[in-house]
Amino acid sequence: MVAATEVLTTKVASGTPYQLDNKQVLRASSALLRHIKSEQEEKEETSTKKTLIGDDDESDGEGSPATNEIVWLVMTTKKHVVDKNRLKPSKISIPHSLNKSSSLNICLITADPQRSVKDIVADPAFPSDLSARITKVIGLTKLKDRYKSFESRRQLLSEHDVFLADDRIIMRLVETLGKIFYQSSKRPIPIRIEQIEKADGKRVKKDPKAKPSKEERKASFASPQVVAKEIEKALNCAPVYLAPSTTTSVRVGSSKFTPEQLAENVKAVVNGLTEKFISKGWRNVKAIHIKGATTMALPIWLADELWLDETDVLEKEEDEKKAFDNDKSGNKRRNPGDDDSSRGQGKKTKKIKAATDEDDISLKEKLQKRKAQALEEGKAPVKSTKKK
Fold first, then answer.
1. pTM of the model
2. Pairing state between β 202-203 and 198-199
3. Is residue 365 part of a domain?
4. CB-CB contact of 33 with 21 (8 Å)
5. Residue 104 contacts by C-beta under 8 Å, 6 or more apart in sequence?
6. I need a surface site. Which of 32, 126, 127, 346 has the fewest CB within 10 A?
7. Which of 207, 235, 263 is the last residue of a domain?
8. For the segment 58-68, what is each residue's pLDDT rounded down to a tens digit?
């Protein structure tokens, strides 16, 4: 339980407030990793079964947790991210890789034909240690044909640790792989393995309507050295999948990281998001937190201003002046929530009320007539009914 007087976030001592406080990031990283470790130790003490989740081959040191829990960075923006170019899956380079295991199983999804990429991986110029970790290369056409059912996709997901995909088909995989992939932490990471044609140092744009021949498609892939470099780069990056919303989550580490390693990855991801992916940069950031898979989120940065531009703020005096001008001009103010249906409903209510008033008037007239008639009958002489 955090003490009431303890400060959760601190401001930078000098310079712009739109920057991370290194001490705060390190404090939050240490507290989060310590909490995850204590939770795991408590679960292991209360559980009678041995923990089988995680990469136990890397946790040989003392005090390291038995399971490898993912640590996420959660960034909240003031306005939605709506740019389609920013919403395309991408990646950010980080100093400490999330995929450094030597027993990593990599599945490479590529554009057709897949045989060209298989030849690249099997080429002698391709690094042998990297080719040993690539256990499957599959083209988009065969992926659609072989993995139609939910069970087959789930099996494919469980057989591999990392999925890399050609950036030319990355947007088409959402429908092909389905929610079993995109609700997990194994979403395909885009890589560029296309051969880039350049003329005078500039990239030559291809006609999207032109259909390349089979030979041209085979030659459209880069050399083995370039492909290997792109794969290594993707393994040393944090994948970024933005959504058209105000919240973005990026995997920045695991419970096996040290606080210093986690803090360095957090700073790298925050800088990458604000510089490339978030429109308006730091001005559009509302809050930054880090959290585990089942833990509470710890704040590492909070914005003082909840608006993006000064034009979004309406002063109280201006608001009262506009209200006064509307009243003076005779324009009746209407609440923003009032629509045409509510106005129509108001008219119906008035009609019903008017009809009710008419009924009340007619009823009063009838009662008055009956009262007058009763009074006249009371004035008439009453005949005696007594018998003599």
1. 0.69
2. antiparallel
3. no
4. no
5. 133, 161, 162, 235
6. 346
7. 235
8. 444 334 445 78
